[in-house]
Amino acid sequence: MKIECEMKDLFEVTNRKLQKGGLLLTSVGRDGRYNVMTIGWGLMGILWGEPVFMVAVRPSRHTFELIEETGEFTVNVPVDGMDEVLAYCGKVSGRDHDKFEEMKLTIEKGRRVKAPLIPRCMAHFECRVIGKSRLIPEFLSEDVQKKAYPSGNYHTVYFGRPLSILMDK
Q1: Does residue 4 register a pLDDT over 90?
Q2: Quick one: fold of 2-168?
Q3: Can you tell me the distance from the alpha carbon of 73 to that of 125, in angstroms, rounded to the nearest whole number?
Q4: Does the pTM exceed 0.90?
């Protein structure tokens, strides 16, 4: 059973999961087709006086297209033992694969957004985009550019307002 909570209740576990394999970001297109991808970069905090979950998505990703279409996403915090799911969802594209079906992930309708929840996960952030920013290469150090962007595929950072934050009771 999931209960509503606050961002501070999930701060430590969410950051720990980000560092140890990632989180699952779900999105949905205007056509209703869902996608899930693994993210290893994300930030939680207060911005503009309210809680915000920031996620970085490259324009080459299918997820980028879907977030651009609907302006919504969910961040799902995996339970231990989901390493195979995290690895797979970080390797293949939702343009070519139904990762939910292939990884046998059940889907739960979001409470406040159209992007789905993954009920197997321990916590969920249902977010609506309230801002975005494309990374500007000239504003990044040379070592960051070499390490993270050798092909020049720079992220867009989405600022998501959590409309609902849920965790296992």
Answers
A1: yes
A2: Pnp Oxidase; Chain A (2.30.110)
A3: 8
A4: yes
